[in-house]
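The following block was generated as part of the benchmark described in Methods. Ligand: 2-acetamido-2-deoxy-beta-D-glucopyranose.
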Amino acid sequence: MRSAVGFLCLLSALVSTGYSLSCIECSEYNSTSCSGDSDLCPAEFCASTFIRESSPGGSIMQIKRFCAAKSQCGETGSATYGYVRRHMITSCCDSDNCAPEVPEFPEATEEPNGNSCPNCFPPTSEECDPVERAQCAASEDKCFVHFFKQDDLEFRIGGCASDSMCQPDRFPEYSYEEVSTTCARVSQ
Ligand SMILES: *[C@@H]1O[C@H](CO)[C@@H](O)[C@H](O)[C@H]1NC(C)=O
C-alpha cells in the first residue's frame, strides 16, 4: 500500500511538472552511438553530447546520452592542448528514447584568438609548464587543468578551453579514481 501511494505521488509529480520522458543513458568511447538502459527523466529532453578529439593522427568521437534540461541543448565548446583540438556539441530531441543525429562539427583547425595557456600534454605528473604555451582558438578564454589519479599516480592535462569545457565529464577518457577540472581566466 505504502509503495502504491509512493508510486501515485511520483506519477502525479511527473504529471504536474509535465515531464514524463524516457531517455537512454549510456556512453561510449570511439563511437557515435551507444545503447543502455532507458530511464524515466525529470527533464524535457533526451540529449547526446558528442566529443571529437582531433589530432594529426586522425579524430576520435565519443558519445554520452542522458536526460537533459533545455539549457543543455545546443551547448558547444572546445579545448586546445598539445597537438589536440577537442570539440563538444550537445544535441537534443524530445520523444521517448530518441537519439539525436550526429551534428556537423567545425573544422579541426580554427584561427588562433591570441590567448595562450600553459600546456600540459601528453599527460604529465609535473606541474604544467608555463613557458610551453598552447595557442587558443575560437571562444577559448580559459586555461584549464584536468587532474586525474589512478592508484598512486597523479596526472594532468591542460591548455585552452571555453567555459563550457570546465567540468570533468568533458574529459571522460581521462577519468579514474579521482578527477577534477579547474579553469582560470587567461592572463593577457
Ligand atoms: C576506433 O575504432 C576503430 C574502428 O572500430 C578502430 O580501428 C580504432 O583502432 C579505434 N581507435 C581507438 C583509439 O580505440
